[in-house]
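Side project, low priority. Logging it here so it doesn't get lost.
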Amino acid sequence: MKQYSQSFKALMLTAVMALPSMAFAAEPAMMKDGMMVDHKGMTVYTFDKDAGGKSMCNGECAKNWPPMMAPAGAKAEGKWSVIKRDDGMMQYAYDGKPLYTFMKDEKPGEMKGDGMKDVWHVMHESQK
């Protein structure tokens, strides 16, 4: 029984020590081929009209440019932050810039929204 108890404690200690690295691996998006993509590989965009860490893309805009929604309890870490949208939902931001995908990007790697109306831009490595 004592052996079992020590093994269980060692297993629990290993699990607890692994948590910080698991949390790091769960960033909302990552860099791939010089641009930011979500976990489905879809391109991530910023909107020039956003200011002061606030999203200005609501209503019809948010249907075309779905915000990268943050789950309940998501916390700021490093350059990642969580902002409150006008509808009360939470959205991820990176370095103060709210993040979005584009509804016309149909498969990973597409960037159909880059430069749209001169206000939508792919989040690039140089911005990170």
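Brief comment: The chain has two helices and seven strands.
Revisit when time allows.
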